[in-house]
User: What shape does this take?
Amino acid sequence: MNIRWDAVVDPAAVESSRAPPALPHPIIDRNSTDIRVRVQLFGALAALSSQRSFELVLSAGAFVADVIAILGERLGEIFSAQIVDADGVKRRHCRLFVAGYPIENLQTPLYPISDLTEIDIILLIAPEGG
Assistant: This one.
């Protein structure tokens, strides 16, 4: 995982001049119709499953929201309720990183690249800074 921990606890603490763009410009594999994603769960979310890492294959055109929906089906309503509210908006205490870059919008697109796209999901409870 290649994440700045100060960005996990307080995204505003990272100087905007040093912060990376929302997502890097990926080297898109134009021959691929699939997106390979590895999702890692951290913090309180890791206790919801005996598995902390999941590898998924999604169709081209998928969004981060699709990943959350698939994991919600696998891990149940308790998982989903920790990530999104009743309106489907990401909760403040949940941090999502795609390829090491923090994201807030679940409609962030995923791109087919030659390697796995890494998605880290961190749920911060009070003792962890949430």
